[in-house]
Amino acid sequence: MRKLILLLTVICTTSITSGQSAKSLLNEVSAKARSYENIQIDFKYNLSNAKENVNQETRGDVTLAGDNYLLNMLGTSRLFDGKKIYSIVPEDEEVTISNYNARDDKDITPSKMLTFYERGYTSKMDIVQNIKGRKVQFVKLIPIDTKAEIKNVLLGIDAQTKHIYKLIQTDAKGTKYTLTVNSFKTNQPLSKTLFTFDEAKYKQEGYYINKLD
Q1: Closest Cα partner for 154 from 106, 109, 182, 117?
Q2: What domains lie within the chain, and their CATH numbers?
Q3: pTM across the whole model
């Protein structure tokens, strides 16, 4: 889950021109993302390492509205209401509540997945691919911090919509974390309580509430 958070940590209707710089393209993508009231993404997530003979794949979904998010994957949910993070594990009937400190947050969280690249990376245009009938321009991001755990990130941007279609993160050990967007919906009607944690409800259902300082 943590590695996904590092990823999820991922929008213009004109085609990408050969003369466009990576920076200007990324500016378009982030401006598009910020223009929406909310975003719902259904995705496929793959973790692979050829040397270790590891290849794992799963699916999930995330709803984003401002800094708030609700992420569902691997049978668990992670909710952020702007102040606290709630990790809900039905199998264990447990909820872990932790405080959020923006100054200590260096992860690519779901609320930053569409704009995380604005700081801390150098960028350059990479290959263009035709994927299932869509033109995808990849931009390669390299952390400015040479000691960063992340070696590089490839962002695949849909040339028509300027939405992020694919994100491939490679770490120093050669492990690749790939997030592929299956569906991308914007400005959907959301419940007013979607990002509200109902502690009384979970206590009534017998969940153990673990509050971290």
Answers
A1: 117
A2: 2-211 (2.50.20.10)
A3: 0.81
